[in-house]
């Protein structure tokens, strides 16, 4: 029981200390990560805030955000998040 009751909170604290404070400058405050939009949220308009991120149009071929869907392009909706938050989520899941 103690493992289930305490471990998630200690992993949160350790990950926040390292990624949110100590390594924040190395990761880069302006560095963004583009992840798939969660299930059931594809109807959100671009520019809408969701959680810690924003819904954007992302051109997978060019590897950058665009203003909207373009004919013939490989453009999809993505959730734009600060990259340190993606690392943070991974630390908690793997911890």
Question: Which SSEs are present, and which pair or pack?
Answer:
Layout: H1 2-22, H2 24-27, E1 32-36, E2 49-50, E3 53-59, E4 64-66, E5 75-82, H3 83-94
Antiparallel strand pairs: 1-5, 2-3, 3-4, 3-5
Helix pairs in contact: 1-3
Please compute the radius of gyration using only Cα atoms: 16 Å
| H/E series | HHEEEEEH
Number of strands: 5
SS-derived structural category: alpha+beta
Name the overall outline: elongated
Unreliable stretches covering 5 or more consecutive residues: none
Which oligomeric state applies?
single chain
Helix content range? 25-40%
Our count of domains comes out at 1
Q: Major β-sheet, in short? A: 5 strands, antiparallel
Calculate the terminal CA-CA distance, rounded to whole Å.
17 Å
- State the helix count: 3
Mean pLDDT value:
84
Strand content: 25-35%
Structural summary, described in words:
The protein has 95 residues and is an alpha+beta fold. The chain has one domain. 39% of the residues lie in helices and 26% in strands. The chain has three helices and five strands. The chain has helices at 2-22, 24-27, 83-94; strands at 32-36, 49-50, 53-59, 64-66, 75-82. Strands 1, 2, 3, 4 and 5 form a five-stranded antiparallel sheet that branches. α1 packs antiparallel against α3.
Descriptive terms for the model:
3 helices; alpha+beta; 5-stranded antiparallel beta sheet; 39% helix; 95 residues
